[in-house]
Design a protein that fits this description.
The protein is an all-alpha fold. 64% of the residues lie in helices and 3% in strands. 11% of the residues are buried. Residues 116-135 are annotated as: Disordered.
């Protein structure tokens, strides 16, 4: 199967397919003219890779997970499971940090709004005392 056909069947761009190959995630054979030819089994693999990218995983982590697809070894499956759990935990920690950052920004926005309205808890504030940007 040529690259355009794999792209059409999977929804991945030809550029993405070349990237996946460069990263060692998929394989192709080359024709005498240098064109890539993919086995039909690569279609399912590309679909899985796209799901893994959609789940927030990077190509290095995906490369660690793919041996699970090609192996019946229980240790390989356990390692893949552990990798997914660690990535989920990393994403959860990132989300927690983002929520904390958003809450800090909300507090600054609230303080700015109070300042702009002159409703600071300590009474009116002199100009330049606090974070405010008036258009």
């Amino acid at each position: 199967m040529r690259i355009g056909e794999v792209a059409r069947l999977t929804g991945a761009s030809a550029r993405s397919l070349r990237y996946y190959e460069q990263q060692g995630l998929i394989r192709s054979a080359r024709s005498g003219g240098g064109q890539r030819h993919y086995a039909a089994t690569e279609v399912a693999r590309v679909r899985l890779i796209r799901r893994l990218f959609d789940a927030g995983l990077g190509s290095k982590v995906i490369a660690q997970l793919l041996p699970c697809v090609d192996s019946d070894d229980t240790d390989v499956h356990e390692e893949a499971f552990g990798t997914m759990v660690r990535e989920r935990d990393r994403l959860t920690a990132d989300i927690t940090r983002l929520v904390e950052t958003r809450d800090s920004l909300n507090a600054l926005i609230d303080a700015n709004a109070r300042h702009r309205l002159g409703e600071d808890r300590h009474g009116p504030r002199p100009p330049g005392d606090g974070l405010h940007c008036e258009a």
